[in-house]
Amino acid sequence: MLKFYKREISPLLPSSCRYVPTCSEYSMQAYKRYGVAKGTILTAWRLCRCNPLGI
């Protein structure tokens, strides 16, 4: 699902992630390093912070 997003949806959207690496790249790294359970939690936490109203 993440690869589909990066390949098909991300190029259509303006670059708006305020983090480096981008949230999708961070997510892929988190899944590879920590597995599905912790990777999902870390990704969700990152996405909650990556918005105009985030802390």
TrEMBL record:
UniProt-listed SMART domains: Haemolytic
Pfam families in the cross-refs: YidD (PF01809)
InterPro entries found in the cross-reference section: Membr_insert_effic_factor_YidD
PANTHER family, alphabetized: MEMBRANE PROTEIN INSERTION EFFICIENCY FACTOR-RELATED
NCBIfam families tied to this protein: membrane protein insertion efficiency factor YidD
Protein name as it appears in the record: Membrane protein insertion efficiency factor YidD
Source organism (scientific name): Aegilops tauschii subsp. strangulata
